[in-house]
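Exercise 3.2. Students should predict the tertiary structure of the chain below and write it as structure tokens, then compare their answer with the key that follows.

Predict this chain's 3D structure.
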Amino acid sequence: MNTTFQIAAFDSEIHSDEVIELWVNVFGYETAHDEPSLVIHRKKEMKDGLFFVSLSPEGKVTGTVIGGYDGHRGWIYSLSVSPNLQRSGIGTALINHAEAALESKGYMKINLQIMEGNAKNQAFYETVGYTR
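Answer key:
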């Protein structure tokens, strides 16, 4: 499997449709407040430079991660990787990239939330250093 990829800042003009498709595929989305285009719109309004995509050599979106800040700590949101590319290092690279971006802004503590019962994601986050 070719796992070559690059991480870039999200560009709504270029990446929105592919990000929406990826998120629907990975997350499902059953509530209106999580609707992907709304999430993208609200994050774009923040203008904080904390939305990243992984791209294949052809420029196709293969993953996403969003960083945020609540005034006290940094947060990780919407880490996703195309199902056929999971376990290829993309998720780890995205989380590391988001953490570095948050730390560069001075956010020394980073949190994330995982839906209860999601053992696969919990195991992944534990491998990259997160604890309950």
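Discussion points: The mean pLDDT is 90. The chain has one domain: 6-127.
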